[in-house]
Each structure stands twice: as structure tokens, then as C-alpha cells.
Amino acid sequence: MTAITVANPCAHCYSARMGNARLHRKTNETDVSLELAINGTGKRQIDTGIPFLDHMLAQIAQHGFFDLTVKAVGDTQIDFHHTVEDTGITLGQAFAQAVGDKKGIRRYGHAVIPLNEALASVTVDFSGRPFFVFNGVLPKGKVGDFDVELVEEFLQAFANNAGVTLHVKVEYGNNLHHIAETIFKALARALDAATQPEPRSAGAPPSTKGAL
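The structure corresponding to this sequence follows.
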């Protein structure tokens, strides 16, 4: 059973509230509370019970200039999968709500980020059509207690719930921590670019269809 509560007194007010979203997702496996401000400065307060996930979410806040508060409690005594996936779901839903009807945003974002020997690129399209492509090799292994294969699970959950087309490419790298961190930093920069206002659009939807 899944219960989702959205603290949203006015479903159409996100643009007026400068891209803020607040969500609470509770299931039999996890309890996730999240607040997001797209037009932030990188302030964050993150506690998922998974230190490496906290570190990766901090990259999104810092390098995307998003204010982000996350509190997650999950069945980590089993493993980290449910908490990682449900945090990705909730963050994706927050971005979907914060951009609202997408009028006046740039829609597309792309970033290529290095970290020592590792290089990754991320391209995002706030298309309203969830799609996720992961290209490259992310070797199975652990960073601390964190299974690195969960990076893809997080990204898939995020893309599905943000309603974005998300392409991630690991160009190269050897250190699993570095590879994962380049992905999250590139995601942050791509999301920042895609959610920036496009003044030339005069508030119109970024599509020839007239809507997304």
C-alpha cells in the first residue's frame, strides 16, 4: 500500500511560488519527506540514512543551485534499494511539480563533468515523456556500504516521476566513487540549465505543440 501526500494548497501556483515543491511519500517500506526550491542557492539538509546517497543528493543541491531538504526512513536493514528508489521517485515528483506547466523554461539541459580520471555526461529534456537511457559501464561494486548499481535505479525512478527524458553516458573512469559523483554533478548542472527561464519565449511553452 502506498500513500502519497502533497502539501500543495494551490496546484497551479508553483510558478508564482518560484518553483517550490513539498512532498511526503509513505509506503510500507519507506517514509520520505522532501522540499525543493528550484531558484535556490544550494542550501541543503539531507538525511536518508544512507551516507553515500546523502553525498550524491548534496551534489544535486550544490551544483544545481537547488535548495533541498530530504528526510527518509527506510528498511535499510534489508538493503538500500527501497530507500534509494523511493527517494528518486519523490525527487522526480518534486521537480515535476516545481516546473508546473513548463511555460517559460529552457526545457533542455546538458552537462559534461570530470572528476579526476572519470568523465560523465547527462542530457535532460523536460518533455513530459519519461524515458531513461544509460550508456556506458558502471561496474558492480560498493562505495562503503552502497551498491553502485543503485545509481541506475535512482536515475530510472527520477526520470519516470519527473516526466523527463534522461540520457546518461559514462565516458570513462576507474574509481566507482568518482564515476557516480560525476553523474550526479552532471545531472545537477543539466537540471539547472533546463529549468532556467528563457526570456525570449515570453512565457510560452517550449514546444511547437503549444503544450508539454
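The two ends are 31 Å apart (CA to CA).
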